[in-house]
Amino acid sequence: MAYALSQVLANPAVAADHLLHADTVFGVEQAIGRTGPGGAALLELALRPLPALERENYPVERVRVVIRPDHTVHAFPLDAANRAFKHRNPPPLQDLCLQYPGDDAALRWLPEDGLEPLVTLIHRHLLYEEAWRRTGTWPAEDAPHGQPADGSHPLRTPETQQEARRWARHPSPHPQRRPRR
């Protein structure tokens, strides 16, 4: 069971401690949680690269995650001065552009997924940004910015199409029955 965002909002310091000590997320080297303006949860994380990337001198990434009471999430890379980012929103926010909201739910993090998948998404995104800075190539299928003409951006690679089918979020096969009166 994932760590619920309601728990993060109720006590960000405990959520940060959970990330540090549970075996549910890789690479959380430091975590501090506090309550911010408007009741938002603020988590400041230091995320260690995967061992193979650490050997390639990928940096420990520092990020501030803001989870608002409506479960809107923003991730702000710290130590970002003088570093290019391919998927970052324009000023004034300049938070990471983690996903396209019009994509199929199978390809997006949703609030009910919880804290651990969110931190994993952010960590992976920061690793991809570093790979892009080093090679000029985004290491996965790359969603363009902006609104598509129709619906969502098309999935171009067979691998992403397969994963979208694999992770499709289907309604429960057993609809809830209404109690008899």
Automatic annotation (TrEMBL):
<feature type="region of interest" description="Disordered">
    <location>
        <begin position="138"/>
        <end position="181"/>
    </location>
</feature>
<feature type="compositionally biased region" description="Basic residues">
    <location>
        <begin position="167"/>
        <end position="181"/>
    </location>
</feature>
<protein>
    <recommendedName>
        <fullName>DUF1249 domain-containing protein</fullName>
    </recommendedName>
</protein>
